[in-house]
């Protein structure tokens, strides 16, 4: 496109050149596999094929004779994750929608899906990041039957979308589409929820009051409504063209949601290799689509978790993107949205104000997103700059006039801030990510003595004892992928927020993750290299810090450093790997994990990707 912003063009060209070898090998493999598996009636022996449709009931004849496309459904349904609970009812409906289009559908497999909201601050959080590899592997197992002409992916939340995408990309000769179920209705006002959390952290309200508040916030089927990792996933699938246009934030149980689901199955039926509009996933997820995902993340102040997920997804498609690429994009991409925790309204308010369609329209018009990508749901990304609606019960798309709420959504010509919501900080303490979009600019620079921890409970105890009532940089180390699976450290947010509200200069530096809901406290996260020594015995610099060392964190200059002389110090001893809650059986993932900037994946590292 002729009006592409120079920085977007420069970064895209750099990624293309850097990825040339891996991308060429990936596409060659997909072409070979696509040719080998394009006709299951010849590639599968009769006995194998009969096993595959033995329980298909009324669809048996169609699958046996390949009368129409057979769509494999990979579902992350469970009842514990509110966003995925609606998926329990999806397979029977999706099969009906497929038959309407002359196709069939089978549940090819199910993947685990954990809720980080349930495991925050608990032992299970140490399984969270590696659940992404497990999900990718589970999707691969489901698709390995080679019974399918396209894939319907039922997944929404934190590790589920990246994991499903990573697994499906290794079957990238198949077209694939995500079918979201939508967000729950808005509950308790976000500011009130945050107020009660901080009161609880200060001991001013009890558990009963806190639970009542949380239950009013997370109250029904559907995605949690704050703009965390799950809803950032939905944004990225739109920017990459892997949804039906505008499908992300339409609520469950509505007629519009049902019609979008129907349209998804009809569309999947039309883009297989048997038709004249073949759109394999391997062609859709290219370098431009990956850049679009990063641009959308920055433009909307999305979850910091995607600084890990985007590189991992890209690697599964033979593409290499790093934090320097994302930082350069961040300097060019303006912040167009403020959605809680970066603003007061949630994703329902965001959607009503114009939502992702408005954001895409603005990004494409400003040359900040690649319009010319191959999408599954339309001609190009321009089709995603509109919103779905029902015209006398029929699904249609219409143009979006403008922002319906300037406090939440602004045009590229008048953004909330001139650059995106994420910065790269680096220095003698390593490389890390700093999410600036939720942090007041007066707090972008913090310089203070550090207090070093390796356990979240120890931070809470020190806070309760008043030991942190001062200017302080809290260093939380041995939280990287190899140490303990790189858990989110969301439990640190309330006490650090209290200290900040008291007027202290406070920051967090960690080789762990923060939640996609991380907010107002400045934080350098995903610190790489991590504190725990790698296979060659090299420890990250966080392992050398001691209480009282002066640490400087500055988003403006991109600095993460200490004035302490680390050269003569001996690395601190890491806590032993914990057991219980299944953590011991995830040891192979910890041993094999690569660094955060590459995606923190053991699966991709083992595959040599």
From TrEMBL:
Gene Ontology cellular component terms for the protein in this record: cytosol
Magnesium as UniProt keyword: no
Keywords of the record: 4Fe-4S, Carbohydrate metabolism, Gluconate utilization, Iron, Iron-sulfur, Lyase, Metal-binding
Cross-referenced Gene3D superfamilies: IlvD/EDD C-terminal domain-like
A GO MF label: 4 iron, 4 sulfur cluster binding
SUPFAM superfamilies reported in the protein's UniProt record: IlvD/EDD N-terminal domain-like, LeuD/IlvD-like
Domain Dihydroxy-acid/6-phosphogluconate dehydratase N-terminal: from-to ranges: 69-383
PANTHER family membership: D-XYLONATE DEHYDRATASE (PTHR43661), PHOSPHOGLUCONATE DEHYDRATASE (PTHR43661:SF1)
The protein, known as: Phosphogluconate dehydratase
Source species of the chain: Alteraurantiacibacter aestuarii
Lineage: Bacteria, Pseudomonadati, Pseudomonadota, Alphaproteobacteria, Sphingomonadales
């Amino acid at each position: 496109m002729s009006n592409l912003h120079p920085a977007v063009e420069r970064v895209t060209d750099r990624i293309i050149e850097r990825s040339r070898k891996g991308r060429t090998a990936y596409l060659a493999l997909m072409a070979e596999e696509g040719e080998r598996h394009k006709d299951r009636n010849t590639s599968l022996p009769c006995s194998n094929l009969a096993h595959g449709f033995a329980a298909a009931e009324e669809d048996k004849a169609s699958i046996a004779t390949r009368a129409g496309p057979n769509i494999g459904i990979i579902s992350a349904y469970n009842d514990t994750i509110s966003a995925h609970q609606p998926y329990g009812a999806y397979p029977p409906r999706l099969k009906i929608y497929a038959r309407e289009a002359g196709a069939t559908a089978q549940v090819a497999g199910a993947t685990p899906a954990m809720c980080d909201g349930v495991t925050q601050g608990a032992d299970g959080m140490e399984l969270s990041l590696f659940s992404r590899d497990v999900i990718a592997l589970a999707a691969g197992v489901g698709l390995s039957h080679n019974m399918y002409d396209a894939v319907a992916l039922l997944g929404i939340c934190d590790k589920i979308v990246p994991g499903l995408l990573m697994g499906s990309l290794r079957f990238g000769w198949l077209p694939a589409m995500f079918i979201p179920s939508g967000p729950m209705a808005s509950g308790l006002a976000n500011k009130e929820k945050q107020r009660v959390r901080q009161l609880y952290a200060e001991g001013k309200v009890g558990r009963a009051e806190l639970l009542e508040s949380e239950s009013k916030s997370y109250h029904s089927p559907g995605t949690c409504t704050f703009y965390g990792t799950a809803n950032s996933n939905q944004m990225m699938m739109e920017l990459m063209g892997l949804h039906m246009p505008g499908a992300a934030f339409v609520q469950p149980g509505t007629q519009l949601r049902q019609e979008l689901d129907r349209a998804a199955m009809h569309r999947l039926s039309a883009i297989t290799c048997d038709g004249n509009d073949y759109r394999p996933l391997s062609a859709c997820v290219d370098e431009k689509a990956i850049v679009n995902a990063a641009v959308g993340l920055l433009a909307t102040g999305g979850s910091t978790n995607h600084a890990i997920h985007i590189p991992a997804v890209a690697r599964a498609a033979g593409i290499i993107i790093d934090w320097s690429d994302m930082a350069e994009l961040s300097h060019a991409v303006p912040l167009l949205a403020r959605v809680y925790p970066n603003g007061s309204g949630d994703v329902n308010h965001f959607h009503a104000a114009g939502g992702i369609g408005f954001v895409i329209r603005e990004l494409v018009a400003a040359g900040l997103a690649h319009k010319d990508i191959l999408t599954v749901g339309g001609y190009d990304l321009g089709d995603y700059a509109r919103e779905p609606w029902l015209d006398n019960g029929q699904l249609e798309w219409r143009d979006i006039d403008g922002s319906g709420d300037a406090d939440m959504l602004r045009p590229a010509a008048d953004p909330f801030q001139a650059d995106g919501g994420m910065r790269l900080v680096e220095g003698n303490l390593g490389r890390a990510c700093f999410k600036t979009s939720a942090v007041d600019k007066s707090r972008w620079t913090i310089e203070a003595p550090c207090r070093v921890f390796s356990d979240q409970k120890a931070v809470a105890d020190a806070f309760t004892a008043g030991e942190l009532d001062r200017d302080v940089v809290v260093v939380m180390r041995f939280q990287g992928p190899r140490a303990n699976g790189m858990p989110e450290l969301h439990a640190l947010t309330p006490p650090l927020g209290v200290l900040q509200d008291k007027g202290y200069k406070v920051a967090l530096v960690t080789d762990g993750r923060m939640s996609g809901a991380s907010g107002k406290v400045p934080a350098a996260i995903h610190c790489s290299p991590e504190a725990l020594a790698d296979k060659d015995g090299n420890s990250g610099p966080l392992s050398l810090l001691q209480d009282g060392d002066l640490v400087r964190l500055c988003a403006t200059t991109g600095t993460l450093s200490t004035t302490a002389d680390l050269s003569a110090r001996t690395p601190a001893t890491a806590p032993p790997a914990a057991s219980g809650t299944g953590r011991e059986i995830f040891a192979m993932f910890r041993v094999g994990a690569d660094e955060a900037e590459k995606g923190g994946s053991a699966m991709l590292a083992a595959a040599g990707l």
